[in-house]
Amino acid sequence: MTTTVTAPEATGAQAPDAPPSRKRRPKLPYALLIPAIATLLIGLGYPVTWQIINSFKEYGLAQQFGQPAEFVGIQNYLDLFTDSVFWTIALRSVAFMAGTALLTMGIGIALALLMKAIPTWSRIVLQVAMLLAWAMPIVAQMTVANWLIDDRNGVVNYVLSLIPGVDLVGHNWLEQPLSFFLVAMTIITWASVPFVAFSVYAGLTQVSDEVLEAASLDGASRSQTLRMVIMPIIRPVLVILLLLQLIWDLRVFAQIQLLQDFGAGGERYDLLGTYIYGLGIGQSQFGMAAAAAMVVMALTLAVSWGYVRSMLKEDSES
Amino acid sequence: MNRTILRAGGATLAVVLAAIWAFPVYWMINTSFQTPATINKLTPTFVPLDGTLKNYREVLADNSFTAALGMSLTVTAIALVLCVLYAVLAALAIARFRFRGRKTFVLAIIVVQMLPAEAMFIAQYKMLASANLLNSVIGVTVIYLAMVVPFTTWMLRGFVAGVPIDLEEAAMIDGCTRMGAFRRVTFPLLAPGLVASGVFAFVQVWNEFALASIILTENQKATLPLWLRDFAQTSNLGVTEWGQVMAGSVLVAIPVIVFFMIVQGRMAQGLVGGAVKG
What we know:
- The complex is a heterodimer of chains A (318) and B (278).
- Chain A has a single domain (75-313), classed as Orthogonal Bundle (MetI-like fold).
- Chain A has 318 residues and is mainly α.
- In chain A, 70% of the residues lie in helices and 1% in strands.
- In chain A, helix 3 crosses helix 13 (286-317) and helix 8 (177-204) crosses helix 10 (222-250).
- With 278 residues, chain B is mainly α.
- Chain B has 14 helices and no strands.
- Chain B has helices spanning 2-32, 36-39, 54-61, 63-96, 102-114, 121-130, 137-162, 165-173, 178-189, 191-207, 210-215, 224-234, 242-272, 274-277.
- Chain B is globular.
- The interface between A and B is large, with 118 and 115 residues.
């Protein structure tokens, strides 16, 4: 930090060659932010504002063709909250989010602990395999998944049918809604576990050997060490990872949309993302879609508040 | 002794799990080399011994593929260059200066990353529709930029903060201006950060499917993810040509996998941030 004796009021980094007599608020940082702020205002600010306004308007097909959209107060929200379809889909989304996030965290933590305990060569094999899965673009993931579970020639049905007494050749995994969502959950978990496992593993490598040694000298068993020494140390990582998983799993859209494209569509296979898409793009009920989107946005921000706070803390620490 | 057995067992388990995780990727590559006759057998072929490159030739000869590749390259290139440029400037501002409004901006770029893109499509669609920018490179790029600039800024902020400000100050004492010192001293040292954040932006834009499927509805404007979806579906009407579809998947995925391998460590760090440092 450069503070000169002659300019006690000076704050922040500033050019040392600036004449000390006319200290002014620096203009440079604002200029540097202009492109980023303009981008955010156009790409996000305007749409979000439009969305907030239109969630209070009657905006359907008729308005699409020129009728003025009128303010209807909270009518859209009332309609939404009294609609049992919306509630079913909202609860289903929350259940899907919780299930997928917990499954991902459980497997990810287990894999990280495994990675810590095994010889280096086998750890690298596992890491490379997981990197491949992590790097797959979503559309490629879903396309491959559809081929894997293809009813006639899919390798999944073939392998499962090798188990005595099981005959799944010709079985369509996307027909039953429950089975549809289990498929979606499996694919999303498969794709998100690597990030969790790598991050937890990185956290585990920060636990110093001295601490572990001290614990074992004090007579702690392996499970006690894990529960009472290791877990508390990596807790901050786990909390952030869980939050990120919850946020990401609440907003799944592409995966569900693509599974519907390949399999069956309709409300029974919807989560909030595809439901909003259907309302807006499918039925041109823009007012209702905006209201539903606002609900999802509020839900996400509520879930992510902890993450935002921890990021802000990181900023003020550096 | 007991410990050795445990380690051997753990290693075996790890290899089995690695096989499970890599299997879908392997199966994609495996199928992409098989002829329709092999694929349609009721018993799957696990190793493409009598492999063929025909699937790749067919896909590469397909005009819709080359058009989508061109579209993806255009959109990604523009978004990438502008995103990194804007993000470097913004990162410089928040890492090097303390000014009024700084906290608000930092809060904004963090919160914005949390906004579910899926909840804004409709509004973005309406905005582009009213500006007559549906099915245009500009329209989709504007939204993509807003999507990737916040995280890229956040990531680069860490890299800028990692370069000691003393270096810039020394340069300024030697007669550089504020920006000159940044350009000649800090910017070259940011190279690893620029690569990492650039690859991040590339992967995001290259893979984006959901928004593209709403904004780019004309076939000749499709990006690669849209092309792959349509390619898998059009063949769905009759018998799906899984060999060609998998060859297409490989072509879409390969650039991402390659770039991803380069920077995965840094990406995880950017997301989890200081928590990993303990």
